[in-house]
What does this fold into?
Amino acid sequence: MKNTNGHKGDALFYALSLIWPARCPGCDSVTQSRTKLCPKCREENEELDAACIGCGLPAGKCTCLKEALDLNLAAVYPYRNGIRQGILAMKFGERLDRADFFSLKMADRFRAVFPEAPVDLVVAVPLTRRGRRRRGYNQSAELAKRVARQLGVKYGRNALVKTKETAAQHTLSEKQRKKNVRGAFGVKPGLDLRGKTVLLCDDVKTTGATLNECRDILLKSGAEEVYCVTIAVTLKE
Ligand SMILES: [Zn+2]
Ligand SMILES: [Zn+2]
It folds into this structure.
């Protein structure tokens, strides 16, 4: 009896895996597990184990002093190869299933880097209204929601809001990026952050201008401490 059931179960699993094969959350190739990177992506995307918490970059590439950054950042991967593909699929291809994998990694990395951080609230970097209209969702909010669940902490929906429309950061130079986001964010009216420790989520840290600006406004609004977590950081090669 047991055998037959097992057999049926196996057959069903096999049939399902043909219709809906597990795909790598990075490069999207068919693989064994939905919850792990494929062997190729694992090999090509070494995690950032000992990165600087000021800027998220590996030792020897730290730009904290030059950029005056102090982000309290935990990031998981360099932004390249399959990780880049997975993030782009999540951002522009409506592959929100990727957010499950990435948020798990983000929560794990955050806890590994800041084991004692007493987080009260998880928030996301907001999208411009234009961006949300185009995509229908904010990938950072999708990540933040899931990271909050992983950590067992409250998620602050729309805690941060965009107060002015800005140009897409990736179209600008480093200098322009800082200027572009200055004064671009605000805290939701009525949200009391006094004494709270906040965890800010985004998909990729590039220059850090956006995270820095969001962190600033959270601190100015009374937050006791602000930490950041991202899936990836861009490395200058
Ligand atoms: Zn892969
Ligand atoms: Zn640094």
User: Anything to note?
Assistant: The chain has one domain: 49-77+96-233. The longest strand covers residues 197-205. Residues 2-19 form the longest helix (18 residues). DSSP finds nine helices and seven strands in the chain.
